[in-house]
Specification:
Blueprint (H helix, E strand, L loop, with lengths): L19 E2 L2 E5 H5 L4 E8 L4 E2 L1 E4 L2 E8 L1 E10 L6 E12 L3 E4 L4 E6 L6 E8 L9 E6 L4 E5 L1
């Protein structure tokens, strides 16, 4: 058993800027508690920042911890893996304390909706099977109708 505090300093994970719009900070909580069944991250989105469009090979749970954010769900059209059409099918507003479950392979984006305040959430990436690798595919898109490439 391991105990840790999500607000304790340290355990910053390097953030790939190709995966986000705007400034984002991330803490690796799973390494702090030595979790092997899921990846757990506390993600901070500065003023209007959000993830780029992406999907995971496993399920994901988001728990909003500060501010106001959103989760947008998209449907893809076309057979190309790198260049296809999209349409937003749902937008869910998230406020402190909200929890949302995202099934594997759902195309989505999430982050801050307020241009002046930070939004944060805990992301729990659930591994499909023990010792498997959790994979995320990131896309460059206009968030309206087009995906142009895998990032």
């Amino acid at each position: 058993m391991k105990k840790a505090n999500i607000y304790a300093p340290g355990d910053q994970r390097k953030v790939n800027p190709d995966w986000f719009t705007g400034r984002v900070h991330m803490k690796d909580v799973s390494s702090k508690i030595k979790s092997k069944e899921q990846g757990i991250y506390h993600v901070y989105f500065d003023s209007g920042a959000k993830t780029k469009l992406h999907s995971h090979n496993g399920n994901q749970v988001l728990i909003a911890t500060k501010g106001v954010g959103s989760l947008e769900i998209f449907r893809r059209y076309g057979t190309s893996k790198t260049n296809f059409k999209i349409k937003r099918t749902d937008k869910i507003n998230l406020k402190e304390g909200d929890i949302v479950y995202i099934p594997a392979k759902i195309l989505h984006a999430h982050g801050s909706v307020n241009k002046k305040k930070t939004f944060s959430h805990i992301a729990i990436n659930i591994l499909q099977t023990k010792n498997s690798e959790y994979k995320t595919i990131w896309y460059e898109s206009d968030f309206k109708s087009n995906v142009t490439k895998i990032v």
